[in-house]
Amino acid sequence: MSDKSVFTEKQYLGREFIPLTIRLVLAMFCFAAYFFTDERERNGDLLVVVGFSIIIISIILGFLLHFRTRVENKSVMLDGLWTTKLVKIDLNSIVKAEKGTYSRYMFNNPVYNLHTKGTIRFFTSGNEAIHLTDRDGLLYIIGSKHPNEFLRAIKEEMKK
């Protein structure tokens, strides 16, 4: 067996469009409120500090890895932030792999290894996901920015 990954994807916390837009609008609101405060009071200076803090936090979140997805050695491996455990899904136990939507909602929170109602979810951004069903009926929903390549890699590994 080779140790070379067939598919690798990294998903970052701060690169999703909608939360990034919300943070930038909040920063712009702070700067606008500072501009319209009278006589530049000490409390007005706090608005500038908060605005720059929001922008700096947004930049840092853009480089903060939420989780990495790898397909190798007939398994899907997901490893996340600092203290999260490596999740290894054996593709020998998977009976169905298909592409679908992650959720019907427009706003979704990033999750890693969230167990709810017979599903295990992994998601950072995007709308599409891969649905893996194992022999026990457990459903893994893994969000991906490149679902077609991810599904192709899974099916390739399942055939081996």
What does this structure look like?
With 160 residues, this protein is of the alpha+beta class. It folds into two domains: 12-60; 65-157, PH-domain like. Helix content is 34%, strand content 34%. It is built from three helices and nine strands. It has a five-stranded mixed β-sheet, covered by helices on one side. Strand 2 and strand 3 form a beta hairpin. The longest helix has 21 residues, at 42-62. The chain is elongated, with a radius of gyration of 20 Å. The relative contact order is 0.18. The chain crosses the membrane at residues 12-34, 46-67.
**Contiguous helical run count:** 3
What is the level 1 CATH name of the largest domain? Mainly Beta
N- and C-termini, Cα separation: 11 Å
Count of β-strands: 9
Order of helices and strands: EHHEEEEEEEEH
CATH overall fold name of the largest domain: PH-domain like
Indicate the mean pLDDT.
86
Helical proportion, percent range: 25-40%
Estimated radius of gyration: 20 Å
Quaternary state reads single chain
Q: What is the makeup of the main sheet?
A: 5 strands, mixed
Largest sheet, spatial ordering of strands: 5-8-9-7-6
Strand content: 25-35%
Structural class: alpha+beta
Count of distinct structural domains? 2
CATH architecture of the largest domain: Roll
Low-confidence blocks of residues = none
The backbone outline, from C-alpha atoms, is: elongated
Organism: Mucilaginibacter gossypii
Keywords: Membrane, Transmembrane, Transmembrane helix
Transmembrane segments: 12-34, 46-67
Protein name: PH domain-containing protein
